[in-house]
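pinging the channel bc i need a second pair of eyes. not urgent but kinda urgent?? the chain im working w is below, pasted from the shared doc
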Amino acid sequence: MKTYIHYITFFLILTASQAQSPIYDISEPQDGPKGSYYKDINGLLDGYDGTYLYSNGNTSLKFVLKKKIKSYRYYYEDLLVGEFQFIKDGVEIGNTLDNITINYTDEYTNHRIKGSSIITGTQLGCPSCSPTEKRLRLSFVDNKSPNIAGVDMRKTTVNGVIALKVKIYWDGFITRREGDPVPPPASIHTGEYLMIKQ
């Protein structure tokens, strides 16, 4: 009887140890097996949650951002997700802010702003960054056109208030077959925005 208990205990320990997924730090990209967990071990996604607003006359861009823990796709990951509102010359061009309160099974696929790529120092277009400064590179998927943009975010302060320096750039180009209608224009404009935390 004692032998059976040892075998059962050994089998349970063996099964439990094989069932665990490997954990990787999001700041060190690598390919892991299905079910891996890309974790924000160093808290690099912390401090971005909240509402940020750029305003210039009758034009404004608002982002609402949230950190999501262990969101699942092919693997688990910690990531930042968000939604937006863009008003140009007093006319609302795009607004997905209501979607930020929805808890999707696949957060990455369903939110307009999403990602967890960490950029360090001056690489990828930040000559004024310090060599150890961390920034975020996210994706923006337009809700009214087939456009996909990159969004770089850098933490800063303006008159003692938390802010983000945001750079939006369209990632690639759109192809269409001859005779197909021209796709609608993008909801937001490329450029650099200083967005103040509200």
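so Confidence is low (pLDDT under 50) at residues 14-18. and Helices lie at 2-19, 107-110. — does that match what u expected or am i reading it wrong
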